[in-house]
C-alpha cells in the first residue's frame, strides 16, 4: 500500500492525528511533496499549493482562509468539519452576552485596579467596592431581544440557548436547511429581512461564513435601525462587521458594546469593545471533535476516494466492490463527460462494477469500480478527455 504524507499547518489535536495508521500515513509540519494539507486558521491564499496535493482539510468550520474555488478548478477537494466546534462557539456567545449586559470586563478591571493600582485593602477596599459598583450596573437578559443572522450549526445552538435564558429570539436565514429548521426551537421567530431583525433586536449576533455576500453585513445603516444601547456580537469573522461603523456607534452612545473574536488595532483598545483572541473553537472538546472529523474525512478520501463534507465538491460516498480497482475522476460539469469516461473504460475492455457521478456547480466527481487489470496508461487516457481535471487510481 502506498504511503500518504500529510502536512499539518497548525496544531491539530493528537486525538485526531492518532487515528491515522502510521504504516500508511506520514504526518509532519515540513513535508516537501505532501499528499494533503491539514490546517486550522493558516492562510493559504498566498501559498503555492503543490501539484502533489490531493486534498485540503480544515479542522474547523470557516474556509475563508483557503482558496476554495481555485482548488476546485484543480480537482482538489477542501473539507471542513461542520458542527464539530459549534457548541464551543455557542458557549462563548452566551458568555459574550453576559459580559456585555453586566459590564463584567470593566468591572473586573476596576476591582483589580483598586488593589494593584491603588493598594486598597481591608475596610478601605470594601468601602470603595460598594461605592464604585453603581457605575457597572447592567441589564438582565429575559425580555430583551436577540437577533441571530445565519441559522446553521452555530446559529441554531445560540438561538435555542438564548431562548432558554428567557430572551425573545429572532432568526434570519433564507437558506436554512431542513435539518437545522427541525433543530430550531419553535419559539424562535423567523423574520424575512435583515433590516427587520436589526430594527427589533437589542443584541445582534451573525453566524454566517465570510463570503462576498456577507462582507460588511453589519453596517452603519443596519446598526442605526437598532434600539439605543444595543450590543453587537461577532464570533463569525472580522469582515462580516463594518468595524468603523460599530466604533462610531459606540462613540455616539447608540451602541452599548461590541464583543468580538477578531481583534483589530482600533477595536482592541476601544473602551466599549471586548476583543477576544479568536477563542471561539478553543476548547479541548472542540479541538478534538474537529481533528477527528477532519482526519476521518481526509483518510477516507485518500484511501477510498470518498468525499464527505467538502465545500467545493459534492458528497460522493460508495462502498468498495471487492476484487475491483477504483478510479476517482474530477471533471468539469458539462454534457457528455460521463459518456466519454465510460467510453474510455469500454475501449480498454474494462467492465464497470459500480459507478457514481455527482455534480456541484461547475464541477463533478465520479467514482468507478472496474473489474480486471487496470493499466497505468488508462489514467492518461482519462486525463486526455477534455474537461477532466484530475484522476486517481485507488
Ligand atoms: N470564532 C470562531 O472560532 C469560529 C467561527 N466560526 C465562523 O462561524 C461561521 C458559521 O459557522 P457554522 O454555523 O458552523 O456554519 P454553517 O454553514 O452551519 O451555517 C452558516 C449559515 O449561514 C447562513 N447564511 C449564509 N449567508 C447568509 C446571509 N447572507 N444571511 C443569512 N444567513 C446566511 C447559511 O444558510 C447557513 O445556514 C463559519 O463560517 C466561521 O466563519 C465557526 C467556528 C468557530
Ligand atoms: O481553529 C480555530 O481555533 C478557529 C475555528 C474557526 O474559526 C472555525 O472553525 O471557523
UniProtKB/TrEMBL annotation:
PROSITE patterns of this UniProt entry?
A: ACT, D_2_HYDROXYACID_DH_1, D_2_HYDROXYACID_DH_3
Q: In which pathway does it act?
A: Amino-acid biosynthesis; L-serine biosynthesis; L-serine from 3-phospho-D-glycerate: step 1/3
Cell wall biogenesis/degradation as a keyword of this entry, yes or no, is no
Which reaction(s) does its UniProt entry say it catalyses? (2R)-3-phosphoglycerate + NAD(+) = 3-phosphooxypyruvate + NADH + H(+); (R)-2-hydroxyglutarate + NAD(+) = 2-oxoglutarate + NADH + H(+)
Q: What is this protein called?
A: D-3-phosphoglycerate dehydrogenase
Q: Where is the ACT domain?
A: 326-394
What function is annotated for this protein? Catalyzes the reversible oxidation of 3-phospho-D-glycerate to 3-phosphonooxypyruvate, the first step of the phosphorylated L-serine biosynthesis pathway. Also catalyzes the reversible oxidation of 2-hydroxyglutarate to 2-oxoglutarate.
| InterPro entries reported in the protein's UniProt record | ACT-like_dom_sf, ACT_dom, D-isomer_2_OHA_DH_cat_dom, D-isomer_DH_CS, D-isomer_DH_CS1, D-isomer_DH_NAD-bd, NAD(P)-bd_dom_sf
Family of this protein: Belongs to the D-isomer specific 2-hydroxyacid dehydrogenase family.
EC top class, as a word: oxidoreductase
Q: Keywords, A to Z?
A: NAD, Oxidoreductase
Which Pfam family, giving just one, matches this sequence?
A: 2-Hacid_dh
- Which E.C. number(s) belong to this protein? 1.1.1.399, 1.1.1.95
Q: What SUPFAM superfamilies would the database entry show?
A: ACT-like, Formate/glycerate dehydrogenase catalytic domain-like, NAD(P)-binding Rossmann-fold domains
Q: What is the lineage of its organism?
A: Bacteria, Bacillati, Actinomycetota, Actinomycetes, Micrococcales
